[in-house]
Design brief:
78 residues, alpha+beta, 2 helices, 46% helix
Length: 78
């Protein structure tokens, strides 16, 4: 019984050691964040769509590597 306990302890320690080394940090993702906004009235409507777009633009300016893509969708009847 004691030999089994020692063998299991050694196996557990080895498994944890391999887990720690396997989880080391990799390369950082340098691609950045891509933000999208979909509106029915565009991003220059002087209302909610424009306020959202201006907030996203402020975020993009404060976080280099971030980009935004705005899309105006005229038809939502599906």
């Amino acid at each position: 019984m004691r030999k089994i306990r020692i063998a299991l302890t050694i196996l557990l320690v080895l498994a944890l050691t391999f887990t720690v080394f396997a989880c080391k940090g990799g390369e950082d993702d340098k691609k950045g964040l891509h933000v999208g906004i979909l509106t029915t009235s565009g991003v220059d409507d002087g209302s909610f769509g424009q306020a959202c777009y201006e907030g996203i633009q402020a975020f993009v300016k404060a976080n280099p590597g971030t980009s935004v893509n705005d899309v105006k969708e005229d038809k939502f009847d599906r």
